[in-house]
Write a structure and sequence with these properties.
The protein has 280 residues and is an alpha/beta fold. It is built from 10 helices and 10 strands. The two termini are 16 Å apart. The structure holds 3,4-dihydroxybenzoic acid and fe (iii) ion.
Length: 280
C-alpha cells in the first residue's frame, strides 16, 4: 500500500523564484534565505519520494474570478509552468500522477469533500517556487507531482478545520492505494504577509513561530483558529497558512519527528517559514 512518509511546509514567495532563475542566490540579501534550505535539498535527495501531493494556491493564474474552486485536484499527465507576466519560469514541466490522483479524488469525494477535477491547467509560483527551493534546478523534477489548489484568494475560503479534516481524508485515500508508494505531502504559502493596503509589509514573528509550534505539537487545536485571527495577526495573505493544515492532517496521529525548522525575515514582503516533519 502507499503511505505518507513525510510532510514539507514552505513559503512560496515569487521573488525567491526570480532570485533562483536569475542566479542571485549568493547575494547578501538572499544568501540567508537559501541557507535555510540546504538541509532540505540533501534530505530530498536522500528520501526521494515516489510522488508528491502538493497543496498550494493558485493566484488568479489558472483560475480567474470567473471560476473559483475551493479545492481542485490535478488529474492531468502534465502541467506547464504559467506565464505570470514575465514569461514562464525556466523550470521543468510538472509530471502528474493521474492514477493516484484519480484514486484520491474517488476516495476523498466519497468521504464527502467536494473536489473540482482539473484535467488541464498551468501552475504558478505557488507550486513552482516550493519545488525550486527543495529540489534546486534539476533537468526534471524528481518524481510525479499531484497539484492540489486551494482557494485562499477570494472569500469565502475554507476553514482551518475543514482543511485539517480534508488532510485526514487524503491520508486515508493514500493508505488505500494498492502500489507501495512513498508519498510526501507538501503544504505551501504563508507565513505572515500582507501585500496591499495600509498594513502592507506586515510581519508577525511571534505569531508565526507560535503557529509553527502548534502545527507540530497540537494541530487539532490549531485547526480551530478562525480566519479573522490569521488576517488580523498574520496579514491578509497570512490566510495562505490554512493550507499547511491539509498537509498536517495527512500525517499519522502519532507525534512526528521534526527533521528541520527554519524561519527568516526579510524576503520580499513575506516571512519565510519552513518545516519538514517525518512520520514515525
Ligand atoms: C509575495 C508573497 C506571496 O505569497 C505572493 O503570492 C506574492 C508575493 C511577496 O512577498 O512578494
Ligand atoms: Fe501567495
Amino acid at each position: 500500500m502507499a503511505h505518507v512518509t513525510a510532510s514539507v511546509y514552505t513559503s512560496h514567495i515569487p521573488a525567491v523564484g526570480a532570485a533562483i532563475d536569475l542566479g542571485k542566490t549568493g547575494e547578501p540579501y538572499w544568501q540567508p534565505v537559501f541557507k535555510g534550505y540546504e538541509f532540505s535539498k540533501q534530505w530530498m535527495k536522500d528520501k526521494k519520494p515516489d510522488a508528491i501531493f502538493l497543496v498550494y494556491n493558485d493566484h488568479a493564474t489558472a483560475f480567474s474570478l470567473d471560476l473559483i474552486p475551493t479545492f481542485a485536484i490535478g488529474t492531468a499527465a502534465e502541467y506547464q509552468p504559467a506565464d505570470e507576466g514575465w514569461g514562464p519560469r525556466p523550470v521543468p514541466k510538472v509530471i502528474g500522477h493521474p492514477r493516484l490522483a484519480a484514486h484520491i479524488a474517488q476516495s476523498v469525494i466519497q468521504d464527502d469533500f467536494d473536489l473540482t477535477i482539473v484535467n488541464k491547467m498551468e501552475v504558478d509560483h505557488g507550486l513552482t517556487v516550493p519545488l525550486s527551493l527543495i529540489c534546486g534546478q534539476p533537468e526534471a523534477w524528481p518524481c510525479p507531482i499531484i497539484p492540489f489548489a486551494v482557494n485562499v484568494v477570494q472569500y469565502p475560503v475554507p476553514s482551518g478545520r475543514r482543511c485539517y479534516m480534508l488532510g485526514k481524508a487524503i491520508r486515508k485515500a493514500i493508505d488505500t492505494y494498492e502500489e507501495p508508494l512513498n508519498v510526501q505531502i507538501w503544504g505551501t504559502g504563508g507565513m505572515s504577509h500582507q501585500l496591499q493596503g495600509p498594513r502592507a509589509g506586515l510581519i508577525n514573528r511571534e505569531w508565526d513561530n507560535a503557529f509553527l509550534d502548534q502545527l507540530i505539537n497540537d494541530p487539532e487545536e490549531l485547526s480551530k483558529k478562525p480566519h479573522i485571527d490569521y488576517v488580523r495577526e498574520a496579514g491578509s495573505e497570512g490566510i495562505e497558512l490554512v493550507m499547511w493544515l491539509i498537509a498536517r492532517g495527512a500525517m499519522s496521529d502519532a507525534k512526528p519527528t521534526v527533521k528541520h525548522r527554519f524561519y527568516h525575515v526579510p524576503a520580499s514582503n513575506t516571512a519565510v517559514g519552513h518545516l519538514i516533519l517525518e512520520n514515525n
